[in-house]
Design a protein that fits this description.
The chain is α/β, with parallel strands linked by helices. Among the domains are: 97 residues, uronate isomerase, domain 2, chain A (Orthogonal Bundle), CATH 1.10.2020.10; 163 residues, Metal-dependent hydrolases (TIM Barrel). It contains 17 helices and ten strands. The strands form three sheets. Strands 4-5-6-9-10 form a five-stranded parallel sheet. It binds D-fructuronic acid and zinc ion.
Length: 394
């Protein structure tokens, strides 16, 4: 079979496989205003805010954030989509969303888009977007230290089968329990309480590139023992430099290359914990793949944030397939706005299928012709089974 038809076959099978999205900032409908959807939220995604402020150096972050959200969206639409060719990944992502929702992205106006989104509601949009994106379930990012989210947990949480929970620890480890007690015992108790309330699929934290295992007392003595007690994976997102430009607020974070020998120390000391890791620096992704060959309890996942770009997703997926076969989780969307699921998975599904087909071509050159059943089984592992089995939610 020719390389082209192998690639086409692999992609058409990928389109049939339901996606399990391991990490997002989407929330179930019961979280009300935290559930972001619609064209103004799509246009004011912090990736686009950063790109807008580059295009309009005459406008400061302080001034931009004084505008209303509709004013921000109108300025971003005019600058990044009318005055410019939308070639960045975040710009092209908006075009993918608009096209997949049935509009002509080169003719539709912002007003027409606002009217179309205004004619529907969040529940209807959730089922439409999950269907269009081919996503079966997403994992939320849940933080009981967020006062708005906490109010829902304290009185209005309604489980939704599309949305699994994940207990996020950045704030809990930084500020301790509700009384501000960040002793090991207090944090262990707090984790047990919230694991009981949320039944999370995993427990997660983001860490700077300067993170050191020896200094991480609460991770070593509270988080890892409690995760092991509940057989919960611990997800570490390593390499973020928070607030490198505070004026950009959520758009102001940067990236750093981490010393992953710190992760090696954790894996050596805690072989019975299930550890999910994604890294923000491309260089770290390669080291992580090598490390996953040494530690079977380490599950590399996703192409996070600044490496969630087609050229880098392709490179990272290539060396993961070459070193790990199909024993990793190639992508998560990190969607913040509901409709992101459409573009992030359209773009990633196509790349993952293409890179897997490259491996099939290599097999063909060695005299091995892969079958449709094998392609389906491999893509099922990559797109949902590896995640579901590692989390124990299969
Ligand atoms: O720490 C995280 O979960 C990051 O993904 C976010 O802080 C970041 O803003 C993001 O959404 C990147 O895609
Ligand atoms: Zn995230």
């Amino acid at each position: 079979m020719s390389a082209v038809s192998l690639r086409d076959r692999t992609y058409s099978i990928a389109l049939e496989i339901p996606i399990f999205d391991l990490h997002t900032h989407l929330v179930a409908p019961c979280f009300g205003s935290l559930n972001l959807w619609g064209i103004d939220e799509i246009l004011t995604y912090h990736y686009l805010i950063a790109e807008f402020l580059r295009a309009r150096r005459d406008i400061s972050g302080e001034e931009f954030y004084r505008w209303t959200k509709p004013q921000q969206a109108e300025a971003i639409w005019e600058t990044l989509f009318v005055q410019q060719t939308p070639v960045s990944e975040a710009q092209t992502g908006v075009i993918t969303i608009i096209s997949r929702l049935g509009f002509d992205p080169q003719k539709v106006t912002l007003e027409e888009l606002r009217q179309a989104f205004g004619a529907t509601n969040s529940e209807a949009q959730i089922s439409k977007v999950f269907d269009l994106a081919g996503v079966s379930k997403v994992v939320m990012t849940n933080d009981p230290k967020d006062p708005v989210e906490r109010a829902i947990w304290d009185g209005g949480y309604v489980a939704d089968s599309h949305f699994l929970t994940a207990l996020r620890l950045d704030q809990i480890l930084a500020t301790g329990d509700d009384k501000g007690d960040s002793s090991v015992d207090a944090v262990r108790t707090y984790l047990r309480v919230w694991i009981g309330k949320m039944s999370p699929a995993y427990v997660a934290i983001s860490l700077p590139e300067t993170w050191r295992f020896a200094d991480a007392t609460l991770i070593r003595e509270a988080v890892l023992p409690v995760c092991k007690e509940y057989n919960l994976p611990f997800a570490m997102m390593i390499g973020v430099r928070r607030g490198v430009n505070p004026a950009l607020r959520g758009a102001g974070d940067g990236s750093g290359i981490a010393d992953l020998t710190q992760l090696e120390l954790l894996l050596q000391e805690h072989p019975e914990n299930k550890i999910l890791v994604t890294t923000l620096a491309k260089e770290n992704a390669h080291t992580l793949a090598v490390m996953a060959r040494k530690f079977a309890n380490l599950m590399p996942f996703g192409c996070w944030w600044f490496v969630n770009n087609p050229s880098i997703i392709a490179e990272i997926t290539d060396f993961r397939l070459e070193m790990l076969g199909t024993s990793f989780i190639p992508q998560h969307s990190d969607s913040r706005v509901l409709e992101h699921l459409i573009y992030k998975w359209d773009h990633s599904r196509r790349i993952i299928a293409k890179r897997l087909a490259k491996r099939y071509e290599a097999l063909a050159q060695s005299g091995y012709a892969v079958t449709d059943d094998q392609i389906r089984a491999d893509l099922s592992r990559l797109l949902h089974k590896n995640a579901e089995e590692f989390l124990g939610v299969a």
